[in-house]
Amino acid sequence: MNALYVADGAPPSLPGITEAAPTLDWWLLAPYLVVFGAGVLAVLFEAFVPKRSLRPVQITVAAAALIAAFALIVLQVETVGAGGAMIAGGVLAVDGTVLFLQGTIAVLALVSLMLIAERRDGRDAFSAQAATVPGSEEERRHILAGSQHTEVYPLVLFAVLGMLMFPAANDFLTMFIALEVMSLPLYLLCALARRRRLFSQEAAVKYFLLGAFSSAFFLFGIAMVYGYAGSVNFAAIRAAVESGGAEIFAQGDGEPLLIMGIGLVAIGLLFKVGAVPFHNWKPDVYQGAPTPITALMASCTLVAAFGALLRVFFVPFGGSVEIWEPMLWTVAILTMVVAAFIAVTQRDVKRLLAYSSVVHAGFILTAVIASSTEGLAGAMFYLAAYGFTTLGAFAIVTLVRTRDGGQELGDLDGWAGLGRRSPGLALALSLFLLAFAGIPLTSGFIGKFAVFEAAVAAGATPLVVVGVLSSAVTAFFYVRIIVVMFFRDSEGEGPTVARAGVLTGGVITVGVAATLALGIFPGPVLDNLLPSSETGGEPAAVMIYQVTDGGTTD
Amino acid sequence: MIPWLTLAIALPAIGAIVIWALPRVKTSETATTAARAEASASGAAGSGGTAVKTRPATGTGTAGAASAETAKRIALFFSVATLALVAAMAWNFDTAGAGGLQFEEVYPWIPYFGVHFALGVDGIALVLILMSVILVPLVVLAAWNEHSDREDGGRGYFALILALEAMMIGVFAATDVFLFYVFFEAMLIPVYFMIGRYGRGADRAKAAMKFLLYSLAGGLIMLVAVIGVYVIGGTFLWSELTAPGSPLAAVDPATARWLFLGFFIAFAIKAPMWPVHTWLPGAAGSSSPGTAVLLVGVLDKVGTYGMLRFCLELFPAAVSWFVWPVVALSLVSIIYGAILAIGQSDMMRLVAYTSVSHFGFITLGIFALTPQAQAGAALYMVNHGFATGALFLIVGFLIARRGSSRIEDFGGVQKVAPKLAGVFLITGLAGLALPGLAPFVSEFLVFVGVYAFNPIPAVISVVGVVLAALYILWMYQRTMTGPTKESLSGTTDLSARETWAVAPLIALIIAFGVYPQPLLNVINPAVERTVEIGADTASTTANAEGDTEEGDEE
């Protein structure tokens, strides 16, 4: 036993495998544990709490867990400091970037939860009983009985746990586990729409199958990288990349493995981000999923996925920019151009927002390509700004409904005359759309400026030119929605607008406030991300073991 | 020290907020539907172009009109107060130091990007701001009843005018490139709604969209150049960027040319210069006359002002390379705009095309790079604002009487409304630069200056003057002289309100036509500074080119 148990800190003989029981820093692990614990508790509540009081209990637990996680993350900022720390035996990193992204995810998840918990006439956005056949007598009975799926809340908590881990993972296996923890509840949640259930189930199956494919690519890429570097740990991979691979590749013939590994891992991550050509799931899933879940995916999942993408390209592969740069250039250009043009042809609001999310992913990719600290800070700001705006936009989508049956009205032509019917709502949506289009005095403009500035400073000017031309195209369809709402009279009755409840109204208010505040006074957030050299202070936009043009941080 | 410029921006902005915040008067259900029916009826009438404008029945009018009446008074009060404030500021302006920036205010805004809320005016900016704040109250006055048949009685329109006024002052006063860009882009939004929501005709939504997309596309191209300026120059402050020894001055000519082009395209679209002028006739034709005054009189000046202030002064090294292409485009604009103006059957579009021609003179004067030509161009910007503004207002009065802007619907107005015909003739003659009226002085200065630069473009541009006589006098002849049409026999002459709206402009046109010295005293020092910069660098680049040639020979 003693021969295997290395307790005095001597290096393990097999790289990547730790025989020592890791010392756990419970304080730094607390946010994960809170969310995980709440999720497990919520599952137990499903079994033991009486049906009547189940919903309020579940909502309270979920909200309390998210608030507590956010509070812990904020408190950790002080403890961790500039250097960052490793926890759980080096599988999770805690540094400025991780804490910023986790804090963003926690807040955005909390806001999404408000949408998820919203009920109209005693009914939420989710199917009464997902196991029944759509359109069957059994389903009707469940609807009449007022059945509901309170399992939604534990599922959301587990998904959020995955999202918190995804950008913090410091080795590929943890990252893969986080990816699955995040994705599996989402596949389920996508299938739970109350209305157009077949459509929703189709979306979920599509998401699941394509997601499984991308996971396979990701795993295969991990295997390649492991073969090259002899480790799945990011720091070890970084060292291996710098020294030309594991010992067996002393002659420098390991490069093909690394190239394949980077490519395959990138496919897995770019799929989650929804970059062209891995974007096909996005419009279908966004359209089919219950809108509150779409909002959750469009904000939190995107933040988490980009957090992971940034870490992978800045830490383990930070030393091999020349390999992935041409690849990401191609993907970024394709994403910005193709998605913008396809979006112009869309008639459905949710599909349009999905394609818009793809285009935005392309814009953020330009910051990844910049491969600099400014790029990191820009991407982080962009993600936070975009998350709030997109939540607000989807909250409005939940309110506009058809006159018969009261389901959400996706078709844009049906939105005509909304500006006259409910001017406040139409104005709020216009603000969000202008922010998407990047008009000054909105957060979208500052975000776009930040990522494009980083890209130009890194010499990627052609990419930025493509970016602004694509913005011009996207502006067309954002503005077209404004035209439909304000300048066109509705044919016939037009849409009904459900009265915004406290929760949905709160989401829209938060969205408007964040969009304006980050657009007019972005100073505090940006300074926090990357203080100017004069003021000093510790930047939040820093990753442990980061390798960028700005230098290496250990 | 009084922060004049901040106050001048804040005052109309507050006015806009006050109007928006006015309590909405609840109209009874029947009144609302009646008003709606009325609005759609008048919309149909507008598209037909033949029916007489409908007036709201008093019963429906009173409910919504109560707040609209207040809104008009508030708008008039705030615009006159702004005029008084700016006049007081101009009184304190030190004419002797008009070449440098005065009333400077610099506050940090977004330290992360080194963005400042920096304001300041030199002679040119001062006269343009003065022109803008003079036009706004007159537009408010002229548009008094223009929108009373709309649901909100036009109060949204007046709020938009004030919001636009704040941004117009901001865009001319900004001495931070980023701040300038923010105002430059944000200005589009109020104008977009002014055309699309409060415009005329069925095509107004399309025209508004075209206007917005053209401007946005130009603005986004400029965004790349703005980022480039920041990355190279390290600051956004105009005073630091143009200071001797700034990194921007030392940039290699090829980069300077690209940056110049980025700014120039945006300004050329705004100006509007052939071949990117195509949005203007549609936008002006679909605008209400008040909007057209601000659009053509002030907004388009931002383009020419930007060329003078940013293209010439930030990238002096690139200027010599662009002189001939821009001169050629200007000549095309002059003649093409004039010829198309002759062929128009719609008065609003006709005046818009004359502006394309006049803007050709302005850009020609700017890029001739001689002191007289630039002084003439700067003076022309002001005079054109007054003359074309007056012309649009009077066409607006005709539209209010006849419900149509087509030339063929008029004829013989002279006999029934002699005062109206009189002011129409005077402003028309100002448009064709009759000696004794203000535009003559500026056009003459441009000719002299351009002749000193090179006789050929000067001679070609004279053709524009001949054509101007043709389109103005022919329009006058077709609308005012001849037998009075049956439908026009009841036409009323100018009302007191209308007289007050145009009389100040005509007084200014005559006053500056006879004695332009006060304006020139303020403009000349500022122009001399630009010319100096241009001349300096032209000689240094010539030397540099000489050097490289010598180098090649070695």
TrEMBL record, chain A:
<dbReference type="GO" id="GO:0005886">
    <property type="term" value="C:plasma membrane"/>
</dbReference>
<feature type="transmembrane region" description="Helical">
    <location>
        <begin position="293"/>
        <end position="314"/>
    </location>
</feature>
<keyword id="KW-0874">Quinone</keyword>
<protein>
    <recommendedName>
        <fullName>NADH-quinone oxidoreductase subunit N</fullName>
        <ecNumber>7.1.1.-</ecNumber>
    </recommendedName>
</protein>
<dbReference type="Pfam" id="PF00361">
    <property type="entry name" value="Proton_antipo_M"/>
</dbReference>
<dbReference type="InterPro" id="IPR010096">
    <property type="entry name" value="NADH-Q_OxRdtase_suN/2"/>
</dbReference>
<feature type="transmembrane region" description="Helical">
    <location>
        <begin position="425"/>
        <end position="451"/>
    </location>
</feature>
<keyword id="KW-1003">Cell membrane</keyword>
<dbReference type="InterPro" id="IPR001750">
    <property type="entry name" value="ND/Mrp_TM"/>
</dbReference>
<feature type="domain" description="NADH:quinone oxidoreductase/Mrp antiporter transmembrane">
    <location>
        <begin position="169"/>
        <end position="474"/>
    </location>
</feature>
<comment type="function">
    <text>NDH-1 shuttles electrons from NADH, via FMN and iron-sulfur (Fe-S) centers, to quinones in the respiratory chain. The immediate electron acceptor for the enzyme in this species is believed to be a menaquinone. Couples the redox reaction to proton translocation (for every two electrons transferred, four hydrogen ions are translocated across the cytoplasmic membrane), and thus conserves the redox energy in a proton gradient.</text>
</comment>
<feature type="transmembrane region" description="Helical">
    <location>
        <begin position="463"/>
        <end position="488"/>
    </location>
</feature>
<feature type="transmembrane region" description="Helical">
    <location>
        <begin position="150"/>
        <end position="169"/>
    </location>
</feature>
<feature type="transmembrane region" description="Helical">
    <location>
        <begin position="205"/>
        <end position="229"/>
    </location>
</feature>
<feature type="transmembrane region" description="Helical">
    <location>
        <begin position="326"/>
        <end position="345"/>
    </location>
</feature>
<dbReference type="GO" id="GO:0050136">
    <property type="term" value="F:NADH dehydrogenase (quinone) (non-electrogenic) activity"/>
</dbReference>
<feature type="transmembrane region" description="Helical">
    <location>
        <begin position="26"/>
        <end position="45"/>
    </location>
</feature>
<dbReference type="GO" id="GO:0008137">
    <property type="term" value="F:NADH dehydrogenase (ubiquinone) activity"/>
</dbReference>
<feature type="transmembrane region" description="Helical">
    <location>
        <begin position="257"/>
        <end position="281"/>
    </location>
</feature>
<keyword id="KW-0472">Membrane</keyword>
<keyword id="KW-1133">Transmembrane helix</keyword>
<feature type="transmembrane region" description="Helical">
    <location>
        <begin position="500"/>
        <end position="521"/>
    </location>
</feature>
Automatic annotation (TrEMBL), chain B:
<keyword id="KW-0472">Membrane</keyword>
<feature type="transmembrane region" description="Helical">
    <location>
        <begin position="180"/>
        <end position="199"/>
    </location>
</feature>
<dbReference type="GO" id="GO:0015990">
    <property type="term" value="P:electron transport coupled proton transport"/>
</dbReference>
<feature type="transmembrane region" description="Helical">
    <location>
        <begin position="350"/>
        <end position="371"/>
    </location>
</feature>
<feature type="transmembrane region" description="Helical">
    <location>
        <begin position="258"/>
        <end position="280"/>
    </location>
</feature>
<keyword id="KW-0812">Transmembrane</keyword>
<dbReference type="GO" id="GO:0016020">
    <property type="term" value="C:membrane"/>
</dbReference>
<feature type="domain" description="NADH:quinone oxidoreductase/Mrp antiporter transmembrane">
    <location>
        <begin position="174"/>
        <end position="467"/>
    </location>
</feature>
<keyword id="KW-0560">Oxidoreductase</keyword>
<comment type="similarity">
    <text>Belongs to the complex I subunit 4 family.</text>
</comment>
<feature type="transmembrane region" description="Helical">
    <location>
        <begin position="156"/>
        <end position="174"/>
    </location>
</feature>
<feature type="region of interest" description="Disordered">
    <location>
        <begin position="535"/>
        <end position="554"/>
    </location>
</feature>
<feature type="transmembrane region" description="Helical">
    <location>
        <begin position="444"/>
        <end position="473"/>
    </location>
</feature>
<dbReference type="Pfam" id="PF00361">
    <property type="entry name" value="Proton_antipo_M"/>
</dbReference>
<feature type="region of interest" description="Disordered">
    <location>
        <begin position="43"/>
        <end position="63"/>
    </location>
</feature>
<dbReference type="GO" id="GO:0048039">
    <property type="term" value="F:ubiquinone binding"/>
</dbReference>
<feature type="transmembrane region" description="Helical">
    <location>
        <begin position="6"/>
        <end position="22"/>
    </location>
</feature>
<dbReference type="GO" id="GO:0012505">
    <property type="term" value="C:endomembrane system"/>
</dbReference>
<dbReference type="InterPro" id="IPR003918">
    <property type="entry name" value="NADH_UbQ_OxRdtase"/>
</dbReference>
<keyword id="KW-1133">Transmembrane helix</keyword>
<feature type="transmembrane region" description="Helical">
    <location>
        <begin position="420"/>
        <end position="438"/>
    </location>
</feature>
<feature type="transmembrane region" description="Helical">
    <location>
        <begin position="321"/>
        <end position="343"/>
    </location>
</feature>
